[in-house]
Amino acid sequence: MTRISLIVPCYNAARTLRLCLESVLAQTRLPDEIVVVDDAGSDGSAAIAEELGCRVVRLSENRGVSAARNAGVEHTTGDVIFFLDSDVALRPDAVANAVAVLEADPGVGCVHGVYDTEPLIDDGPVEWYRLLHQVHWRRRHLGEVNSVVFALAAIRREVLTGAGRLDESLRDCEDVEYSSRLAVRTRIVLTDTVVGRHDEGHRFLPVLSEQWRRALPLIPLALATARRGAAKPENANSRAGILACALALACLPLGLFAPVLFAVPAVLVGWFVVADPELLRFVHRQRGTAFTAYFMAVHLAVHVVLVTGLAVGSLRVLRGSPA
What we know:
By secondary structure, this protein is an alpha/beta fold.
């Protein structure tokens, strides 16, 4: 019988942790052990975990999600490690379905899931933007993939051990870096049978700040992936959309020479809007016309930050500076 260890890295997550852990305790296939790693938080999250009967591992200082996951692995013994973020509440069959994928095919070393279209806690339009974008791009890549998102993922312990510890120097994109090591060792499956409701970021400026932090290391990580011989990870955004946004930014100064030339970046923004028609249709089905217009406005702002971050990250590579 496969022994399952479920690990929840946690930092000041009292708002969502109870919902997360209650969903774990309601699973049709209960984990054999549930470990919450408190990453030196100060909001009483550890007390919530203990109240619900979970084992708590306390870190003496805040070291980031990779360190918390590594600590969780060190304090568990299961054959399968199920990583679950503290802001995700699983559907009742999520653990059972993840283990079933692994048990059905010994060649699959890791399986991860998708988010529900409903948020864990509804905090308004920015959160809906984030959530629907996440749902769409993951559903688009269902099947065998080259990357893993550890928000809700199960991995065989021997595979995890073989690929090594998560990189604790990374506070963002740690899953991107780890995927480049994992994909050359085992097959990875993304499935819509493992589902959780996610509490996404809901404030505009912090969302842009997070996108900036995640964009900066993407070029160095892509180069590292190529050196390891791993296939490229799945894209969260349309390449045509990224190109359209980049060209619009590059052409924006043309308007300084003649106002009529502002038409050039305007046309490119129009291209950006229609660059991913499947995304447009998906958002429209979920939330209607008015929200779709709002979604694309936020999507453009996020892409401006993404493109700028990629450019700065590329310059740092050329100068030999760390990302």
